[in-house]
Design a protein that fits this description.
alpha/beta, Glutaredoxin, 195 residues, 2 domains, 7 strands, five-stranded mixed β-sheet, two-stranded antiparallel sheet
Length: 195
């Protein structure tokens, strides 16, 4: 091997080590971001999610019947079960909505408001409500702003299945993240009755 060949090989090895070092640094950063739940595509990672005991962010959204519903209108009057779900007319979402429908009288008798939120349109909500004979309000977050505000917008652009129980003072008292679509209505009803 000549001196020129040795110098070229040494230069390539140095450059290769720099590239390898840069790739390892980038890979470590990606692993850390994934472990932390940070995702720019989701519109917010875990750091944007609300905590129990924090004030519920106010919002105004159109309902399935065309009214504009403002969360703060319930403040000082009654607790609210605010449940986010991915999509109208899908199996899990239908089970969850029908469970709230079947338990709605108990919510009403206890003075608890139920609001369902997804990124579907008002027209989609109207059809879903009619098809499933739902007896509570569905809110259309088709601009995805409230789902982002509550930290529940998934990477795929749908609301994640998360339920918030908000007390009369507008404070988040309970957050259900691993939601069983069938049991969610009864578990939130029992908790909200204690407020």
């Amino acid at each position: 091997m000549t001196d020129k060949t040795q110098i070229t090989a040494a230069t390539v090895n140095k450059r290769g080590m720099k590239v390898l070092s840069l790739l390892l640094t980038l890979a470590c950063a990606m692993v850390f971001a994934a472990a932390s739940g940070v995702s720019s595509a989701s519109g917010g990672g875990n750091h944007d999610k609300l905590a129990e005991g924090s004030p519920a962010p106010d919002f105004t959204l159109p309902s399935d019947d065309g009214r504009m519903v403002k969360l703060s209108d319930y403040k000082g009057k009654q607790p609210v079960v605010l449940y986010f779900y991915p999509k109208d007319e899908t199996p899990g979402c239908t089970k969850q909505a029908c469970s709230f429908r079947d338990n709605f009288k108990a919510f009403k008798d206890a003075g608890i408001e139920v609001l369902g939120v997804s990124v579907d349109t008002v027209d989609a909500h109207k059809a879903f409500k009619r098809n499933q004979k739902l007896n509570f309000t569905l809110l259309a977050d088709d601009k995805k702003e409230v789902s982002k505000q509550y930290g529940v917008l998934s990477e795929r652009g749908y609301s994640s299945r998360v339920t918030f129980v908000i007390d009369k003072q507008g404070v988040v008292r309970k957050i259900y993240t691993n939601v069983d679509p069938v049991a969610n209505a009864t578990e939130t009803l029992e908790f909200a009755k204690t407020l």
